Amino acid sequence: MKVLLIAALTLWAQQAAAGLPDLQAIVRYETVSQGADGVEKTLRYSEKWVRQGGHVWRERLGAAVPHRHDDDGHQHLDFASAPRHVWQDRKGQLNVEFIHAAKRERIVVERREWSDAGFDGSWARASQLVDIAQLRGFAKKNDSADTIVYTKGGKTLRWSQRWQMPLRVSLQSADGRQRETITVEPQALPPSAPQPWKRSADWPARDYLDTLD
Questions:
Q1: 3-class DSSP state for residue 14?
Q2: Which stretches of sequence are listed as region Disordered (predicted)?
Q3: Which residues neighbour 127 within 8 Å (Cβ) at sequence distance 6 or greater?
Q4: Among 56, 74, 103, 139, which lies 20 to 30 A Cα-Cα from 6?
Q5: What's the pTM?
């Protein structure tokens, strides 16, 4: 019985990954915060996303290549801005790697180090930005044939049924001093589009722990 259950869960995971439409997208993040002194600060950055066949690639736009540190001479990877590749294998297990383009190597992150590298272990958030199943208590209304709007307090999410991705996420603190906005511009992925993770597939792999030396 246990073997059958594991097989069923594996099949479900593969079908769920295959069921997500392929896409390419630009995801823009903006955070505006106002301090007690009245000074307003804005943080913006954008990412390129590619989702195809159980693979998700996200890459910070405009990020500089890692620079050398004077203290040890090594090139240290900024995992927050480095290209990240998350995918499901045939058994439905998640795999995570970061790309160190300057050194032409893949940094493989084992499950026990996921949180240290900034990955929370959620395939839904890795592949769809938000876990729509976790929106408990949100009011829901159909805004169009494709778009569903979820609202709760200072949170609003516009969800695309076609792309299975949010089009816009807005968050505001209770006092109004902090606002966060994420906008997603999805497009169809041409069949001939190169898969970015294949460019580095043959690069040597390095364990995440080795990068902490």
A1: helix
A2: 174-213
A3: 17, 20, 51, 56, 86
A4: 56
A5: 0.85
**Which stretch of DSSP H or E encloses residue 101?**
none
3-state SS class at 174:
coil
Listed in sequence order, the residues at least 6 apart from 32 whose beta carbon sits closer than 8 Å to its beta carbon are 40, 41, 42, 43, 178, 179, 180
Choose among 140, 184, 195, 181: nearest CA to 162. 184
Q: What are the φ/ψ torsions at residue 208 (nearest 5 degrees)? A: -55, -40
Q: Which amino acid is at 200?
A: S
At 123 the three-state DSSP class reads: helix
**Residue 139 is which amino acid?**
A
CA distance 21 to 164: 7
**Per-residue pLDDT tens over the stretch 113-156:** 999 999 999 999 999 999 999 999 999 999 999 999 999 999 99
